[in-house]
Amino acid sequence: MVPIFTGEHTLTVDGKGRVSIPADFRRVLAAGDPDRTPDRTPDRAVEMKILYGDHLDRRLHFYTMSAFAQIQADILALPRGSEARNMASRLILGQSVTAEMDRDGRMVIPQKQREKIGLTEGKVYFSGLGEFFEVWNAETWAETEGAETKAWLDDKPKGFDPLILLQPGGS
User: Fold this and answer.
1) How far apart are CA 105 and CA 34, in angstroms?
2) Local confidence pLDDT in tens for the 171 residues of the chain
3) What three-state secondary structure class fits 14?
4) What is the CATH number of domain 8-157?
5) Which of 100, 86, 3 has its CA nearest to residue 50?
6) DSSP 91
7) Rounded to two decimals, what is the model's pTM?
8) Fewer beta carbons under 10 A from the terminal one: N or C of the chain?
9) Contacts of 85 (CB under 8 A, 6+ apart)
10) What is the dihedral of CA 116, 138, 153, 23, to 10 degrees?
């Protein structure tokens, strides 16, 4: 089974954009970087892709290199000249950047991407969503997604079990 990103973490980013990646996320990133193997290239930095497209509003998506390669293949499989291929290329391939995780499990979030989500320094929120993880300014997440999730749950009966969402027709 392919490892996936799960859990949520709040960490600190400094003024230069340096942040530690949660340990469980590090393992998934390393497993998803086919050009780095512990036996052949143990000192090579682990690479990942950051997606910062306009459609993401105030968050960034981080993918393993393997997961992003599959997205690239899916885009290139679309008919040339089609609106779907042009827009997917523009919003996904055109608005992504490669980043590295150093040996100590840290990365630098590029300035352009930090500015996009209003992250200068302070608290950063990581949320594992399976094949990718999101990074938010922690305050923005609490005000938007955290509040939206809480409001959604408030409409559910006491003792609501989210596993019902996995069943056909679950809501």
Assistant:
1) 18
2) 679 999 999 999 999 999 999 999 999 999 998 876 665 555 678 999 999 988 898 999 999 999 999 999 999 999 999 999 999 999 999 999 999 999 899 999 999 999 999 998 899 999 999 999 999 999 999 999 989 999 999 999 999 999 999 988 766
3) coil
4) 3.40.1550.20
5) 100
6) I
7) 0.90
8) N
9) 75, 76, 78, 79
10) 100
Give the DSSP letter string of 98-160.
EEEE-TTSEEE--HHHHHHTT-SSEEEEEEE-BSEEEEEEHHHHIIIIIHHHHHHHHTSPTT-
Domain boundary assignment for the chain: 8-157
Q: Which position has the token pair 């009966």?
A: 157
- CB of 140 within 8 A of CB of 134? no
